[in-house]
Description:
By secondary structure, the chain is an alpha+beta fold.
Amino acid sequence: MSAARSRVVTGQGLAELLRVSGAHPFIRWEVTDDLAQTWWRAAGAVAFQRTRKSVRHTVNVLGDDAGVTQLIEHLPEIVATVAPQRRALSVSVPQHLEPALRERYRVLDGGDWEWFHTTTAPDEHPSYERVVHLDDVARAAEVRSFLHAHSPTADTEPGQGERWFAVEDPDGSLAAVAAWGTTRAGAPHLSSVAVDTRLRGRGLGRTIVGAVTRRAVAEAGVCTLGMYSHNDVARGLYLSLGYDRVCAWSSRPVVLRH
């Protein structure tokens, strides 16, 4: 490693990043060898590259508060490596340290979200028999309409390669859906969990999340998911099914150049 100002050091390689982070689950399942070619460390915290969906490169910072603050100060140097031609870059920091980001830089509107993971399958439940595989290609228009009506912030579209599951009404219409994709490092990742608003409170969310999580853990030994932080009901559901809330992120575009 080579020293940088303000006690920030630069590291290389996923194995070393996992070692210094204590094999942090978010890094284990969201960062790959190519993203870990260069990363940064300060006082018990690390900054590393991540990419998801259409966002080519982002920077995430996690760890002890003092180290995170040092790495926030070091962002211009980090961005010069990650995206030297970019004027702004999406940066994710622990939610309680978002003010430190805003004090130092011009920060645009973003989102607050949380990342969960479990290696323990929920107990079997008779309702899980209602969960069936969903042909999201043949029924793409129906799934899109369902998500638009009942979960407009859902960020996974049908027909993109995920495995979809559903709970159906007796007439075959959708009552609940969920997508099973994968993180960049290959862990099952649940997204676009949606329940018909007219049927909420009947346990359908617990049914579909519990059943898909159980299958994912049986197949891969782990399951992950993310949620927007305003959704207290979803958080309670995931925690009650055995998920750990590993990270609470504030993700913001940060302007570093004029």
